[in-house]
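mind reviewing both lines:
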Amino acid sequence: MMKEKVKSHPKLLFLFLPSAIIIGLLFFLFPACSDDSRDNNVVRILFNGHKPDGFERVYEEFLRRTQDTLNIRLAITFVPPEQYNQRLRDALEARRNSYDLVFDSPRFLLREMGQRGKYADLRDIINFSVHPNLLNVLHSQVLQANLVNGNMYCIPLYRSYGGGISVVFYRQDWAQEWGIGSIDSFESLELYWEEALVRGVLPLYLHPERGFCNLLTAGGHFTNAVHAGIRGFNIAGTVFMVYIYADSLIAVAPVGAGDEAFANFPPPFNRDFAMDRFEQFVHWRERGFVDDNSLTRPNRMFWAGYAASLLGTLNDYDNVLESMEDSSARLGRFVYDTDIRNLRPGSIPNCMVMHHGLAIPARSNRKETVVRFLDWLFSSQENHNLFELGIEGYDYIINPNGTFNALTDYPFSWPGWSLTWNPNFVVFPDTINEQDLPFREFERLESSVVALPANNFAFNPNFVQNHVDNVSAVSNRVWPFLRHGLLDRELYSSSAEMMKAAMEEYHAAGLLQLKDELVRQLTAHLELAQ
C-alpha cells in the first residue's frame, strides 16, 4: 500500500476538508496562534519528540471521532529531544503561560519545578470517581514512587515494570551444532562455554565498562532480599545495602565490608551476601570463559563471530540479531534469573520511579480540559491505538496473535514515551521473537513486580560532595576488577579478601561519612513517608 503524501501548502489541504476539521487543523498547524489562549477546548502540548510521519492524518481522524463528544483540539509543539529540556525550562520560566500539558519526570526537571510551584498537584485536579480511566491505568505504587515531597506532579508513562529482562545471548545455531540444544540453565550454559573453548571461540564477551553486569541478579537486585526489605544504593561507585523493616531503617552496610558489617540484617542475608556473585565471576574467568583483556577489548567480537555469547536484555534482541555479520546466524537467549524464567509473580524488582511522565503547568487555565483528554486517551484500546499506532487498516493491522503489522512508517515513528505509554495498552510488533512474547507480556503485569524498599528515595550527594569525589576515586580502581572477575591470586585468596583490604583506603576517603549521610537522608525520607 502506498503511503499518503502530506502536501506542504496548507491551502491545498483545506480544499478537501470539512469546515469543522479545518478549524481544528488550524490549531495543530499553528500552535503559537494567540487566539487559542481564549479557547477552553484547546490543549496546548509541549511534546518531547519529532512529529511522526502521517500525524496530520491521525489528528484529522481524532477530530472526526470526537468532535461531537469530546470536542477538544490539540495545539502541539514537537521539540527534538536534544532541545527539549531547555525548551521546557524556558516555557516554565516565562511570564506568559504557553502550555497546558508537558513531558517531564523525576529524572528530568519535575523535582525542581514541582518544588518551585511550577506544576499543579494532580490530586487537586483529577477526580478519579469522575475520571476512573486514569485510576485504572495507574499502579498505586508507581504513583507513590513518583511523588515529589508528597505531591503528585506527574502521570508516569511506562510500558513495563522492568528495565528489560536480563539475558545471555548465544548462537543457537552453534548450540545445536555442538549437541547442546537450547540453553535453559547455568549447567547447559557452562557446557556451551566449554565447547566454545575447545573450538577456539571466546565463550563470553564482556563489555569493558560493564563486565559481568547484572549476571546472577534480577536486574541488579536480589529478589529474595528485596522481599525481605533489603536493597542496594550505588553511591560514589560503591553499593550500600540497606535493611528496612516496618518503614524504619534497621541497618546499612557497604558491599565488601565483611560479614560482621551485616550482622543486623535478617537471615540468610546477615553476611556479605552480595560478594558471592563476584566470587563466581572469578571462577568463570579462571576457567577461561572470558577474555584476559576484557577491560579493553573492543565490542564487535560477538557480532563478528569471535565470541559465543553476550550479556544484554530482551529489549536488545532485534538490534543484536540485526548486527550479526553472519546472515545465517540464529540467536538464542537464556533468561538466567530462575524466578523470572518461570514467570513467577513478584520476581522483577523495580524502584517504580519512571523516566517519563506528563505534568500540567500550574498556570494553565485548562486543567479540566487536559484531564478530560487524558481520560479519553486511556479509556480504551481503540482510543490509545489511534495515537500510538495510527489508523487501523491504514497504518497497521492487528494479527490473530495480538501483535500488530505496520503498513506505514507511523507506528514506528510515534514517540509513545512522550504521551501514550501504558502497560495496559501495549501491542507488540509482529517482528517480536515468538519465544520472547510470554516474557514481554509478563513484564507488563502488575503481579510480576516487587517494589524496592524506599522506592522513591534519591540520595542527594551535595551535602558530602568532597567525600563522594574521594570515595569515587577509590571505587574507580576497585570495582572494575570486581565486575570483570579479576583477582591477583598472589595477593588475595578471594574477592572478599581484596575488598576487605580496600576498606582501609575507603575509610580514609570518607566511606563512613557517606554511610552516615545515607542514614540521615533515608531516615528523614522514611519518617516523612509515614
In short: The chain has a mean pLDDT of 91. The two ends are 58 Å apart (CA to CA). The longest strand covers residues 238-245.
